[in-house]
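Re: folding output
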Amino acid sequence: MSQQACAEFFTKINTDAALQQEVGAAVEGKEDMAASTAFAEVGAKHGYEFTSEDAAQKYQEILAAADGELNEEALDNVAGGSWKFKWKEMGGVGCV
């Protein structure tokens, strides 16, 4: 159930500019589980109950779905474990 809530929250982010900014501010400067935790906390604030582990797993699924279409900057951030978001890149939530 919490994985579904996490997926729904990622979908919601793609259609809500204010939420995009809120999540971006929450995860800015954080990496790995600290960013996942901040992401889950924003989700909970908006009624989406999921764990930081769910958020990290979904984020990795999004990166995998990009299927090699990441630009050089995105690859550097993924390799460094960064959770920096750029919205609607890669057909949904992506990283930069």
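--- second protein (sequence, then structure) ---
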Amino acid sequence: MRLLESIRVLAGSRAIAQRRMLNHRLRAIDEELARLNEEIQLLGRRAALAQTHLVRQQELVSESRRRSLGFHGCGASCSSA
């Protein structure tokens, strides 16, 4: 009987140790997931900012081209057109 009881105690101790190890792994995974989510959000904000910058640059290029062709938006009666 003592041998059986010793086996049960050892099995219980081993189960507790495994549960602690798995909980530790899960916490590490959760922390990594949170870090990656923050990084994804940051990259999304950077992408949105880059898109805004690109659109503005395209607008400036278009405006520059219009001006170089003499279309500056003051109307058909302008003498400089």
